[in-house]
Amino acid sequence: MKKTPPHYNVLCSLDIGTTKIVTAIAEPTDENGLRLLGIGCVPSRGLRRGVVINLEQTTEDIERSLQEAEHIAGCSVHAAFVGIAGEHVRSINSRGAIPISKIRGEPTGEVAPNDVERVVDAARAILLPMDRRILHVLPQEYIVDSERGIRSPVGMAGVRLEASVHIVTCAVSSAQNIMTCCKRAGLAVQELVLEPLASAESVLTDDEKELGVVLVDFGGGTTDVAVFQNSVIRHSAVVGCGGDYITRDIAVGLRTSVDAAERIKIEHGAAHQRVIEQNEFLEIPGVGGREPRVMSRSMLVSIIAPRVEEILSLARDELIRSRSLDNIGAGAVITGGGASMPGMTEIAEEIFAMPVRIGAPQEGAPGDDLALGPKFATAVGLLRYANQRRHKGHGDGTPRRAWRLHSPARIKDWFQGAF
């Protein structure tokens, strides 16, 4: 007799990157946490620097990633929280102010929830070109009269209410192309989310956000930077180069194919000479039928290290220009696919002149303590972001049709085979 499959609330995230597309499916737990059910990860072939340049190819890659995640999770999903990044993303800090409605007979008023909404709307009233749209409006602090640093002003007495917000904008065409690819792949976009904002949800601690921390998301096409202080985002920016530049430098420097260069980077690459043995050697495949060659690993690192230093220096210069490096008490956290390279911590500490750690999500396979690598930070962070929105009533993670759950042993076997 065929059993009727149970219904569950599940959440789905989609990280559409330059080098990979990741779909993650999770089930919220009673403790407001997440139980990761499955992940699909496939190479991305239709993007450049985070921007879709081939709709058909990107759609096909999304479908493959989605099918892989659904097969492992044992469920069908039809909507997802989708990450967005790229050089087209811009951010600005803005401020708005409104008078607080006075209570009859009183010289001051009391801040009501609708006052908070009105002052945020006033802060987001910035002039934008027709080809751009607002992605996020993130409150930083509220000011009631002269009292600063207020996080929740509702109920406070005053005459004037101000709000400082961080506004993130993106190109309309880039956002629309992502949504079109998702729609063609059978996924509705519940919300577009800035990728470093999502990554922060999975790799940063509350203490780090409070003390002040720099997040560097080292991706394939771009490197995203975000600064948090007093538990709110203060600055975000995009550096228009990432791991792809390193791969192409290796291909040119070692005279090998791009695919071989990517494999060599992943298997043997390092960002600092200090972390390798000087007498290590590796085989370099030839191009066009040429014989493979043997080369020292030190030579490979001499190609990688200058490019990593350049990318991180561009990120540092951006932070210096925006005056975002003041009062960073917790140091920096590097995540993304590039963060897995040995020596990244050492070279980043030299460039940023502060303590650095590698950030990876903590959610693992059900019934196992297996942790995912930094390249899954955005996908897992999107799930955590979606779960927060769900609790606030802004998201609905309910799947459109029933599904069955595979055994934890099967999921564990898949994770061990994949990572």
Describe the 3D structure.
There is one protein chain. This protein has 419 residues and is α+β, with helices and mostly antiparallel strands. It has a domain at 90-170: 2-Layer Sandwich (Dna Ligase, domain 1), CATH 3.30.1490. It is built from 11 helices and 20 strands. It has helices spanning 55-73, 113-123, 172-184, 195-203, 206-211, 243-254, 258-268, 297-321, 344-352, 377-391, 408-418, and strands spanning 11-16, 20-28, 34-43, 47-48, 51-52, 79-84, 90-99, 109-110, 132-144, 147-150, 157-158, 160-171, 188-194, 213-218, 223-229, 232-239, 281-284, 293-296, 331-335, 356-358. A 5-stranded mixed β-sheet has the order 3-2-1-6-13, with helices on both faces. The protein has a 5-stranded mixed β-sheet with strand order 16-15-14-19-20, with helices on both faces. A 4-stranded antiparallel β-sheet has the order 7-12-9-10. The longest helix is centred in the C-terminal third of the chain and has 25 residues, at 297-321. It is globular and about 90 Å long. Mean pLDDT is 87; it is low at 1-7, 364-370 and 395-419.
Topology:
Layout (H helix, E strand, L loop, with lengths): L10 E6 L3 E9 L5 E10 L3 E2 L2 E2 L2 H19 L5 E6 L5 E10 L9 E2 L2 H11 L8 E13 L2 E4 L6 E2 L1 E12 H13 L3 E7 H9 L2 H6 L1 E6 L4 E7 L2 E8 L3 H12 L3 H11 L12 E4 L8 E4 H25 L9 E5 L8 H9 L3 E3 L18 H15 L16 H11 L1
Parallel strand pairs: 1-6, 6-13, 14-19, 19-20
Antiparallel strand pairs: 1-2, 2-3, 4-5, 7-12, 8-11, 9-10, 9-12, 14-15, 15-16, 17-18
Helix pairs in contact: 1-3, 4-10, 6-7, 6-8, 8-9
